[in-house]
């Protein structure tokens, strides 16, 4: 583990934990809103990083998995009216994760027939199909989306806004980071990385690369689905607009910005993306004219992203 | 760590400082207003018009309401519901605004309004008018200075009835507002409908397939709804297909003062219904239109008129409560009175907090200096209430 | 029957426009291994330049010519300043960098040309309609687009297949290292290929301008379709791009024209109305997935490195 990256990650996480009391003392609830958004996006980015970073596969449809999680909550709430089994988080979260993982595995197993740019495009195409699928859900608002009828309930704890939901998002983020860290050190992670570097060698050793990659897809889908559950509760709103291809590109931008294939990269990327957007858009509505070239500059000057800047060449 | 890493961290520190500075927001004394509208992307012209009109309204009131200074924060929703919600949250939690206005798009409004009303602010939609908020989901702290989606096409259906038009080809994009528009049109239109066609939204740019179908169906008229730039595209392709002048074209929300300079030649003589036009003759409107032209060098669109009215409505509420915005019940009562001079003449709210207003028939004509303008022909509806108001449980 | 022929023509015309967009994209993919999301921005710039120069010169033809030169110039500058450094990077990083360029160009266009959409009338001599066969009346401008597209395709074919530059290009696309070892100046060649791609994309924008509203974000509307065409056709294959563009154009147009009606014969009107447009939107992506599952390297696979 790269020390500088670990330090920055620890500092960032400490700041996120400190944000909760700080927001209350300073009467700045927006700080909490912003950090919760970072946490949720970071969870999705950690999920995407399994495929994009560890396995080195250019997948570009992951916003759809987040959407699956969000729609699971939205539809369950609408159908249950906020009471009963379907309103319970103990049902919704596993349902969202399993649904997203299954669809992820299916999409993965078809897409893995292709390579390179074709793979990029086929995952994007699946994402667009799910997007149009959501648009055609007339009963659930169609293109307009729908307001969440009731938040996800864990017993008496509601995953709606405020401190409780923020703490829940932080815990999920920590668990996701831990899972991602353990995976990177496991034989599973080694196979993914090995296959990314040299697929033929892995096959020659007798490893079924395909199966490992499909598993990575399923896991990554599940994490994104859980992020979707949190996102739907955070915004109180579910809509196809958050499933489109530009959102998928943004998720990938976060992973790359932070450092693909590193444990903490997705966290750095999500934080940098959200904070940059926040800072620049506060200065001028023309902020994208600076933000765009900045992305280009980062690619040219810092190919490993933020994690790469902190420690070049070492295993981050 | 090397120099590059240090440089990276320095950039990070600057960003954090900017964010923290940003967090201080516009928490001035007096009246705090937020406007969420579209300032970037393909529809930025609409948001731009709304912001300009709001600024003009502030000029007209000396940038104060009931003796209190006014601070306005403009936010860009990028025509995206998630972004709209985030900006609304920012206005609520950082700027602590008491009123939030703007909202061009139904989906952005539906995503955002709860965040505002739950935080104790009043939402005044200056454009979007989804059926949900007019009917079953109507809510005490939401007001509209525009219209409900169904109303304008309802007036058009009425016009076409009077002319005994029948066998009409209906065309609209496949999204919620598009379906509202079609349902509004069908509510009043009594003639037969040749076909009802929905196009892809928002990424369909070519209408060749639909135009070929229209030609083959040979209806006696076409009615369609394509907002803003999409309307421009449809008119151009309709003209190039040689259908212009052959099959009469009726539309709703597809010709406005923003795209009229672009397509005037194609739509000369076209008729449309609207609740407001620059030609409406009343003192408030003359002042608004003249000063808008003077300040910005163009004719305001109906989007601008609605934004101007929303500023005047807020001012009337501040004055009506003598500046005390802490009691929501008195603020709401003051808003409900709508005690201001609207650019559309008479203005009052129905029980769902949507305007009860007149609708007019306008015609595209070539004016004195060869510029195209919308000429007022006749009043179609007087004090019209939208059809969803009956489903709203609020008592006025 | 007459309607069907007209819809076929519409599909072909849309396909030709898509071909102009994707031909450059596929060459840039094939030769340099470069995923360029900003390709759509050049299409947008072509359209904006066409409006601007037509107003300046008062002639559509002159305006279009100037716009073509201007877009190509922007392409050259872009290659030298930004794109050149990205050729040897992983696809993902190229996507990130060129996504940044999209943001830049969109915001830049808004600053230069203002937020309102712009409109461009077709030239006077093409503003009418042509009777192709008894009963088939077709807009003259769309016919001109069809002809211009086919002519560009033919010119491109001759350039690639019959000229020395084309030979170098094919050699580099097949095996860049080998070509370099044999003395091909790859730097110049890459610049040329990128400029050619920019010109083709700009031409598509110029031709589309009289049909559409010229506005910020118009590039992203067609970008995905162009990528679909490139992948279906086989990366790096101009011939593949032509075939795939026509297929996609036909599927899109015919899907919109006939799918809702077909659905209505199976389902009730309401369901058909709700599902029809969404299914028509999905149709292209479904077809792409099916084609790629059967032929993972596209219809006309090449030995390009972008594939690996």
Would you summarize the structure shown here?
Helices cover 73% and strands 3% of the residues of chain A. With 316 residues, chain A is mainly α. Chain A has a single domain (3-310), classed as ABC transporter involved in vitamin B12 uptake, BtuC.
Envelope shape of chain C: globular
Given helix and strand content, the structural type of chain C is mainly alpha
- CATH topology name of chain C: ABC transporter involved in vitamin B12 uptake, BtuC
> Might you state the CATH topology name of the largest domain in chain B?
Rossmann fold
Which geometry of chain B do the CA atoms define? globular
Strand order within the widest beta sheet of chain B: 2-3-1-4-5-6
Q: Distance N terminus to C terminus of chain C? A: 45 Å
Structural notes for this entry:
The complex is a heterotrimer of chains A (316), B (396) and C (308). Chain A is an all-alpha fold and 316 residues long. Chain A has helices at 3-25, 29-54, 63-80, 89-111, 116-135, 163-185, 187-197, 199-205, 209-235, 245-258, 265-283, 288-301, 305-310; strands at 146-147, 153-154, 157-158, 237-238. Chain A contains 13 helices and four strands. The mean pLDDT of chain A is 90. Chain B has 396 residues and is of the alpha/beta class. Chain B folds into two domains: 23-147 and 280-349, Response regulator (Rossmann fold), CATH 3.40.50; 151-274 and 361-384, 3-Layer(aba) Sandwich (Rossmann fold). Chain B has helices at residues 3-23, 44-60, 81-93, 106-118, 131-134, 151-162, 176-188, 208-217, 228-240, 260-267, 283-296, 302-320, 328-337, and strands at 31-37, 64-65, 68-76, 99-102, 122-125, 142-144, 168-173, 193-199, 221-224, 249-251, 271-274, 348-349, 355-366, 372-384. Helices cover 42% and strands 20% of the residues of chain B. The mean pLDDT of chain B is 91. Helices cover 74% and strands 3% of the residues of chain C. The chains are: A mainly alpha (316), B alpha/beta (396), C mainly alpha (308). At the A-C interface, α5, α10 and α12 of A face α4, α9 and α11 of C.
